[in-house]
Amino acid sequence: MQIVMNTPAARHFDAAVLSRAAVAQGRRPAGVGSVRTLDKDEELFAEGDPAVSFYRVTQGVVRTSKLLSDGRRQIDAFHFPGDVFGVEAGAEHRFSAEAASAATVVAYRRRDLDDLLFDETFSREVLGAMMHALERAQRHMLLLGRKSAIEKIATFLVDMAERLAGADAVELPMSRLDIADHLGLTIETVSRSLTELERKGIIDVPASRRTIVLRDKAALARLNG
Predict the structure, then answer these.
(1) Rounded CA separation 15/12 (Å)
(2) pTM for this predicted structure
(3) What structural domains and CATH numbers belong to the chain?
């Protein structure tokens, strides 16, 4: 299942535009991004791999996760079209990245970063994407530490609706297990929480089980806090 979004961030990340801008300024064109298509659950990179590239999603959704010492998986983020991920301070990736749905990404070499950032549009979009990622990470930290299961699910659904342009019906590209590992819950708790929200008339869960209809956004917002 794919989600395709024609966002400003996705439109501005155009390798040909970046290359032309570099030439116009008398600089060496940065290596154009290489496109990679991923099947659902296909790995892009593993924790500890050399961080030679960073990435932008153009189609579908990519999840980044870490395997904990006890074998559990913690999904730190879902990356949608226009999102940038894999930017590391060190030489290795701190998380693994796999496709949550069929996905397409563009890889940019870290060694070309100086040339890429010389383009004002590119640097502005990278900074904006990273700031949004930091904001989401801070919200996620609060969610994991202080919210009940119902509140976690409500927060997740509100976030998905916002990222999918405020849709009243959210077609989730990730599995219930992915949601559980993102929210620090069991898959059974995720199912029970969705059933409880449906019983209260706040959401509807059609037979497809991937689409969630948000019947009462105000109630979800209250649970979101």
Answers:
(1) 9
(2) 0.78
(3) 8-144 (2.60.120.10), 148-224 (1.10.10.10)
